[in-house]
Amino acid sequence: MNAFLGTFFDWDYILQVLPDLLRTGLLNTLVLAVCSAAVGTVLGMGLAILGLSTKRWFRWPARVYTDIFRGLPTILTILLIGQGLAVVARGIVGRNPYPLGILALSLVASAYIGEIFRSGIQSVDKGQMEAARALGMSYAKAMWLVVIPQGVRRVLPALVNQFISLVKDSSLVYFLGFLTSERELFRIAQDLAANTGNLSPLVAAGLCYLVITVPLTHLVNHIDKRLRAGRAATRREPGGLDGLVAGGKVA
């Protein structure tokens, strides 16, 4: 029992690594996740719109892109982008692989986020588009003002789940060899664990990940519960938008 506690819960090592985890690792983990989520969301929305196009030369490239980046292991994509593009992008990012790590995570995230957006948009009742067009809106305006906002609202829990995945996947960029000031949670803990032969620093890093992901998981459950309650209330209201569309009435 003492050997187990000494291997996983040695407080000397935990207290030794904790300042670096909180000061450097936590910040870099959040920067990697937030930047990748922002870029991935923009790209994902574009993929969703292209994937829903009636024109094959728009739809098929989006499908191929999605299949590739969803089908490849994340670590393989990180290595291919981070090392393969390093020579080409050296004039832009220098020898720093940090931006390439963000790019790799963004490309992977965009493939998943694009599918999330596409499913959300497709779940919106077709009558919403018909009602908007009947009010004189163009197809593009109806999509941006009526259909897409409803679709995004429905997939908010899935988007938060994707952000949680990005927080965890950020640990994989350590393969690119970041500078000391750019190390994320896993790399800081892994370095000390490798030097000491003790796993307590990794346990400390795991606790830091839980501090981020557990509240987000509860946020997902809360959002999902609110959305379900809102949809149920809308269905019960005779004058609700769904009721108007279903009844063929347009104000």
UniProtKB/TrEMBL annotation:
Gene3D superfamilies: MetI-like (1.10.3720.10)
Protein origin, superkingdom: Bacteria
Domain ABC transmembrane type-1: 26-220
Membrane-crossing residue ranges in chain numbering: 30-52, 72-92, 98-117, 199-221
Localization annotation: Cell membrane
Coiled coil location: none
Transmembrane helix as UniProt keyword: yes
Keywords attached to this entry: Amino-acid transport, Cell membrane, Membrane, Transmembrane, Transmembrane helix, Transport
Membrane topology according to the record: Multi-pass membrane protein
A Pfam family this chain is assigned to: BPD_transp_1
Family: Belongs to the binding-protein-dependent transport system permease family. HisMQ subfamily.
Protein name in the entry: Amino acid ABC transporter permease
Organism the protein comes from: Amycolatopsis pigmentata
